[in-house]
Every structure is written in C-alpha cells, then in structure tokens.
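Box 3.1 A note on notation
Throughout this textbook, protein chains are presented in two layers. The first layer is the amino acid sequence; the second is a token string describing backbone geometry. Keep the layers aligned when reading.
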Amino acid sequence: MWVFGYGSLIWKVDFPIKRRVPGYITGFQRRFWQGSTDHRGVPGDPGRVVTLVPASNKDRVYGIAYEIHEQDAETVRQHLDHREKGGYTTVKVTFHPCDQSEDVDLVLYIGTEDNPNYLGPAPLDDIANQIYRSVGPSGKNIEYLLNLANAVRTELPGVEDSHLFDLESKVLELQQSPS
C-alpha cells in the first residue's frame, strides 16, 4: 500500500511507514479550499486546509509518498479514513518519484466539491484571514499553514507553490500587524 501526502501528511505522519519518497502527481493543484470543522476549525467556524483540485496534466503537486508495510496496511487505512473523515474521499493516481525511479500507483485523500465541508475558491486575503483566526481541536489553523509551507521548503527544496507561499506571506503579515 502506498499513500500520497500533500498537506499535513508531509509534516505529520502518525502511522508506521516502510519508506518515504518525495515526488509529484500531475493533473491537480493544491488549494486551501477544504473546510476543517474537526481539526483546524469547528462547526459554524471552519478552518481551511488543503485539498487538490483538477488542473491541466502539466500541473504538478509535490509531496511525499509513503509505502506502508503489508502487515500495517489495514490499520493505516482505518486510521487515515478516520483522520481524513471531514469530507475526504480516496482517489487513485500515479506518483512520479523525484529520483526518477519507477512510478507508483497509489491512493490519496481528496476533498471534492460535493462534500459538505468544501468551501471552494475565495480571494486570497479572505482565505488568509480565515486561516489566521481559525482554531480547532488540533490547534490553530495558522500552524497548519506554516508547518506545510516549511515542510514543502525543507522536504521538497526548489518546489514553487505560489498559492501556498502567497498565503503564508499574507498570514505572516497579519501576525505582524497590530489588531
């Protein structure tokens, strides 16, 4: 079993893995368009976390693929189904390792626009304000954004993600400005 991490699974792996491989998938873009009412927000005041939205086949989303030991596969699947319960479903995609080793077909969790927590696009300033003020059972939404931006820079050096890094800049500006 292989799983692709493009959000918190890049920096918060809380299950046993056999190995981790940096790389990318095509045909999607990473966007903060998924509402979080169970981790980074609450019902009635959701935070925003990433999902993947369809894009051209030239678009790439970089992340980390995790190979799961066969004996752990069912336990990890159940754990991820619970962790990603807030509107996510599974999709099978082809993963391309950065080291150009053999491609792998794997599973990823995606919040599609037909799920009840999907928030969709909004002006970047609005998304930044929502992330800045949202808090849920797993902590501040801003921590999710900053951890993800840091992990992408650290784990995937040289990868550009304008949506992620522009949001990071806007939220850091909000932190600096007096309320």
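The domain at 2-174 is CATH 3.10.490.10 (Hypothetical upf0131 protein ytfp). DSSP finds five helices and nine strands in the chain.
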